[in-house]
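Researcher: Before we compare anything, I want clean individual predictions. No alignment, no superposition, just each chain on its own. First chain goes here; please echo the sequence and then give the C-alpha cells.
Model: Echoing the first chain and its structure:
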Amino acid sequence: MAVDLRQSRLKRIELFCYAAIVSWVALYSYRHPVYNWDLIGYVAAVAAIDHHGPQAIHRATFEELERSLPADRLQELKHGGAYRQSVFENPKYLVQQIPFYSVKPTYLALLYGLHITGLSVPKASIWISIGSYLGICALIWRWAARRIGDPRLSFGLSSLLALAPPVALAAGLSTPDALSSLLVFAGLYLILELRFTVIGLCILFASIFVRTNNLIICVLVSVFIVSTRRSWPILARASAFTIACAVAVRLINSVTGSYGWRTLVYHTFIAPLPNPAEVQPDLTVGAYVRVLLSGLSSLHYSYAVAMLLFFIGGAIALRAVGYRLAWGPAAQGAALIVVSMSIHFLLFPIFWDRYLLGHYLAFIFISTRLFSEASLVGEVTDRSVPVLAPLELSEIPSPKHLPAT
C-alpha cells in the first residue's frame, strides 16, 4: 500500500513537471513568435474572404500586418529582396500568391473563425500553433506511458521530445505545420498503436485539408492496412478511402486555382515567381535533378538523420546481444513512415522538419515498440525449456536392483 501511494505521488510529480516544461515552451512561443513571409500569403487569403479586388485585398492585408507585427519585422517581410518588394508594391501580384496558401482550407477556416472573434490573423496563427503543440505533447506523454514501462524513462523521453527543436519551434510558427503534424501524429497513433482504424483514418483524411501533401501518408496507411489485415472487405474499404483522399485533393486544387506541382517546385527551389498566373515555368528534367541533388544538402541540418541514427543504433545494439528485429506490424509501420518521407522528398525536394514532424514522432515510438518486440522474442528464445537427452538402455536399473517395497 505504501509503495503504491509513493508511486502514485511520483507520477503526479512527473506529470506536473512535464506540464511545467510544456507550458514554458508555449508561453515562450507566444511571447516570441516567428513570423515568416508565408504569413503575408495567409493574411491575404483570409482578407480575400471579405474583400474583393486586388486593391482592397492588398490594403486589408498590410493594414492587418501593420497593426500586429513589429515594424522592423514587417519591413523585412515587405522589402527583403526583389520578390518581396514586387509583391508588396503590386496588389495584382499579391492576389496571384493566394492560390499557394488557399489550398489549406481548414487552416484558413480556423484563422478566419478566430479573426471574427477579435484576434488578429497573425495572433490567431500563433494560437493555432500553440494549441497544436499542446496536443502533440499530450500524445507524446500518452504514447510514451503506454510503450515504456519505467515511468522515469517515460518522463525523460517525453520531456526531451517536448523540448526538441523541431517540436518546440513548431509552437511559435505562423504556419499550419504544427496543426498538420498533430493530425498526422494522432492518426498514426490511433492506427499503429491502438488499432482504432476508422477514427485514425478520419483524422488523416482531415489532415489533407490542412496540407494536401498528407495524401502520401494516407495512401501508404491504406496499403499498410491491406497488408496486415488481408481480406476483401478491408481491401474494398481501404481502396474507397484512398479514392476519397485523391478526390478531396483534386477538388481542393480545382476550387482554389492551384498552379500545380511544376509551378510550386519552380517557385520554391529555382526562382520565386511574383506573378505565377502569368508565366509558365520551364521545369526540365535536368533542372529537377539539380534541385533534387541540392535538396540532399538539407539533411545536414535535418532531424531526419537523428531519427534514422536512433533506429540504426538500436538495431545494432540489439544485434550485438543476440536479438533480432521481427518483421511484423511495428516494422511495417516504421517502413511506411520512411517510404512516406522518401516520396515527400521526391515531390518536394527538401527535408524541412516542420513538414515531417508528425512522421518523426510516430517513427520514434514505432521504433521503440519494434525494439521491445525484438527483446521479447530474444527472451523467449533464451529461456526455452531444455530438452533432456534420452537415457541409454544400460542406464535403466534392472528390477533386481530396485529397492524392496
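Researcher: Okay. Second chain, same rules.
Model: Second chain and its structure:
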Amino acid sequence: MKVEVEKQPGSVSTLQIELPPEEVSKEWDTIANSFARFAKIPGYRPGKAPRSVIEKRFRKEIQDELTKKLVSKSYHEAIEQEQLRVASLANIEDVHLGEDKSMRFRATVVTAPEFDLPEYKNIPVQLPETNVSETSREAAMASQLVKLRPRRARTFTAGKNSGCASRLIISCRDFANKS
C-alpha cells in the first residue's frame, strides 16, 4: 500500500492511498466467491454458476462491496502506518478502481494540532484561603438532605381498602444523626 500525506493549514491532512492490484484482486475473489455461494441465477443450481457469469451479473454489487471494505481497511492501515493522530474523518473522495484491479482514493482527515508543550510542572499556585463556619456547614448539609430525601424515599402501596380516612402506620429511620 502506497500512502502520501499532504498537510494543509488548520490541522487538516489529505491522504492519497493506492492499493496494489494483488491485494484488490484477492479481496475481489473473496467477495465474488461469497456472491457465487448464494446467487440464484436461472439455469444454474444455487452456488454452481460459473465465476464469469457471477462477475458479469453482479459486477456493480461486487465493486460496491469491495470499495466499502477496502476503503475502510486501508484507511485505518494508512493512519497507523503514518502515525497520524486523527480527530475525525472529513471526507473520502475520488475512489477509483482501475482496470488492472488497482485502487486509489483520497481521504481528508482532521488531525490533532501539533504544538510544543511549555514547561508546566512546578508552577506556583496560590490557593485562596477558605474558612468554613459551623453554621454554613450545617446549612449546606441541611440543603443536601432536602435534596437527597426524595431520592432515597421508598413508597409502598398501602392496600386495597385504604382511602383518605384510613390511618397508616409509618416507620422512619433517621440516618443523618447516627453516631
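Researcher: What stands out in the second chain?
Model: Helices lie at 21-38, 51-57, 59-82, 134-152. Additionally, The mean pLDDT is 85.
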